């Protein structure tokens, strides 16, 4: 008997909605509007959710609040302001936000100044007139900056702060670019200097000339200072025959 209140509390969820239970444990409750071999679409009250059947563990079908909404709406007259307003309240309590908006919009079409419907649809009253929230901010002199409403002074301060931050970031990036360029220039200069030193050192060498094959010929470098005249000091090979 102690469990009866809990069971009664759970009855609306358990018995009055289609439940699509997924393999991972999640669940969508609402009204199934379409089901095929590959996909099931369920209206959860604020939109339709499509789920691949490969993800579905099981489906439990029952009457849903959406069915009740349609039934209640079908019995209301086109000019029944009180009835549409009550239906809007009921739909909001059941979590049917889209249907609640539809009912309240019906109320406004019949009674444009109805306070309950206006507030339910997000309108606010300013200077004796109903207007949207954005319109009310504009009427009070607010401006929208970076997605937020604020006073013109606050917007100016926010803009100046954003410009200062941008300038700081640009200065930092310019300094980084300059540092990288300097490192590249230093590396290029060091490479050029090494190349120049190597070329200068090779120009001061006196290379010998090969005078024969393996086993004979010049086998030692000339002494320093002899320069390029060392070949002139090499003894001439004696002649073995007469003039030809």
Account of the 3D structure:
This protein is 47% helix and 18% strand. By secondary structure, the protein is of the alpha+beta class. Among the domains are: 12-63, SH3 type barrels (Roll), CATH 2.30.30.100; 66-140, Alpha Horseshoe (Serine Threonine Protein Phosphatase 5, Tetratricopeptide repeat); 142-183. The strands form 3 sheets. Strands 4-3-2-1-5 form a 5-stranded antiparallel sheet, with helices on one face. Strands 6-7 form a two-stranded antiparallel sheet. β3 and β4 (48-52) form a beta hairpin. The chain is elongated and about 110 Å long.
What is the CATH class of the domain at 66-140?
Answer: Mainly Alpha
CATH superfamily of the domain at 66-140: Tetratricopeptide repeat domain
Main pleated sheet: 5 strands, antiparallel
State the share of residues found in helices, binned by percent: 40-55%
Q: Looking at CATH, which topology of the domain at 66-140 would you report?
A: Serine Threonine Protein Phosphatase 5, Tetratricopeptide repeat
Query: Spatial order of the strands in the main sheet?
Result: 4-3-2-1-5
Compressed to H and E, one letter per element, the order equals: HEEEEEHHHHEEHEEH
Structural class: alpha+beta
Give the second-level CATH assignment, the architecture of the domain at 66-140: Alpha Horseshoe
First-last Cα distance: 141 Å
Task: Please count the beta strands (DSSP E, at least 2 residues each).
Answer: 9
Shape: elongated
Low-confidence stretches: 1-15
- Beta-strand percentage? 15-25%
Report the C-alpha radius of gyration, rounded.
46 Å
What's the number of helices? 7
Mean pLDDT: 80
Oligomer state equals single chain
């Amino acid at each position: 008997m102690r469990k009866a209140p809990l069971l009664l509390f759970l009855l609306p969820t358990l018995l009055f909605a289609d439940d699509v239970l997924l393999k991972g444990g999640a669940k969508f409750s609402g009204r199934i509007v379409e089901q095929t071999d590959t996909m099931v679409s369920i209206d959860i009250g604020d939109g339709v959710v499509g789920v691949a059947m490969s993800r579905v563990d099981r489906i439990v079908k029952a009457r849903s609040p959406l069915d009740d909404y349609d039934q209640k709406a079908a019995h209301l007259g086109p000019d029944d302001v009180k009835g549409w307003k009550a239906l809007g309240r009921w739909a909001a309590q059941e979590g049917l936000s889209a249907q609640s908006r539809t009912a309240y919009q019906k109320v406004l079409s019949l009674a444009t100044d109805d306070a309950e419907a206006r507030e339910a649809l997000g309108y606010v009253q300013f200077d004796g007139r109903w207007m949207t929230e954005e319109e009310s901010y504009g009427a009070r002199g607010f401006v929208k900056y970076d997605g937020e409403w604020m006073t013109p002074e606050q917007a100016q301060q926010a803009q100046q702060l954003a410009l200062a931050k941008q300038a700081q970031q640009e200065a930092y990036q310019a300094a980084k670019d300059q540092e990288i360029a300097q490192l590249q220039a230093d590396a290029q200069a060091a490479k050029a200097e090494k190349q120049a030193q190597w070329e200068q050192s090779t120009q001061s060498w006196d290379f010998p000339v090969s005078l024969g094959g393996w086993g004979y010929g010049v086998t030692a470098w000339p002494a320093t200072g002899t320069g390029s005249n060392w070949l002139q000091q090499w003894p001439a090979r004696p002649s073995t025959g007469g003039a030809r």
